[in-house]
Design a protein that fits this description.
The complex is a heterodimer of chains A (about 120) and B (about 110). Chain A is mostly beta strands and about 120 residues long. Chain A has no helices and eleven strands. In chain A, strand 7 and strand 8 form a beta hairpin. In chain B, strands 1, 3, 4, 7, 8 and 9 form a six-stranded mixed β-sheet that branches. Chain B has a three-stranded antiparallel β-sheet with strand order 2-6-5, with no helix packed on it. The termini of chain B are far apart. Classes of the chains: A mainly beta (about 120), B mainly beta (about 110). At the A-B interface, strand 5 and strand 10 of A face strand 7 and strand 8 of B.
């Protein structure tokens, strides 16, 4: 059974940093692109970033470029999102997701809430 | 303002058929990129419902179907059930933005 479990969310002040983690199990982690998708409170879904199987390619939504860094450790079956210079508009539930054969996410974690507030 | 436009809400009685539209442009759906659909039940993570315009993952009932034409796509739900009450999102790729994009979401209410 595919499982994705996020952790690392919490309350952080504007300008602060946070590192999200996603532990994957039930599939060969190193064979899949992985993504982060976020959802602001009461709002829709927004794709944030994704990373190729070997970490050689990474893509970001414009609003987080230069502030967020996606990475992975295939030996630990883990995905990460380092978030720096956080802003109030980054407040959201962040989902870790496995990418399918096309540009879609076929499995999602339960999400971790990030709140940016003073 | 989402790149893909969905109606904010739709509703239907149990047993009825409802459709949810997803309208894009020549840089996403109209450019030939696939459309995918997700269901998000209240308080839960999104779940893949349709991928590649019309394909259902294992376990998704055949009451759910997807189609695409031109710059738009649609999700149809037949034999509406109370458990279908959820938010539905379409997704595609946009070549102008060079990123995946979601529709704003549609809340389905089962009357």
């Amino acid at each position: 059974e595919v499982q994705l479990v996020e952790s690392g969310g919490g309350l952080v002040q504007p300008g602060g940093s946070l590192r999200l983690s996603c532990a994957a199990s039930g599939f060969t982690f190193s064979s899949y692109w992985m993504s982060w998708v976020r959802q602001a409170p009461g709002k829709g879904l927004e794709w944030v970033a994704n990373i190729k199987q070997d970490g050689s390619e990474k893509y970001y939504v414009d609003s987080v470029k230069g502030r967020f860094t996606i990475s992975r450790d295939n030996a630990k079956n883990s995905l990460y999102l380092q978030m720096n210079s956080l802003r109030a508009e980054d407040t959201a539930v962040y989902y870790c997701a496995r990418d399918g054969d096309g540009d879609y996410e076929d499995y999602w974690g339960q999400g971790t809430l990030v709140t940016v507030s003073s | 303002q989402s790149v893909l436009t969905q109606p904010p809400s739709v509703s239907g009685a149990p047993g009825q058929r409802v459709t949810i539209s997803c309208t894009g442009s020549s840089s996403n759906i109209g450019a030939g990129y696939d459309v995918h659909w997700y269901q998000q039940l209240p308080g839960t993570a999104p779940k893949l419902l349709i991928y590649g315009n019309s394909n259902r993952p294992s376990g998704v009932p055949d009451r759910f179907s997807g189609s695409k034409s031109g710059t738009s796509a649609s999700l149809a739900i037949t034999g509406l059930q109370a458990e279908d009450e959820a938010d539905y999102y379409c997704q595609s790729y946009d070549s102008s933005l060079s990123e995946g994009v979601f529709g704003g979401g549609t809340k389905l209410t089962v009357l």
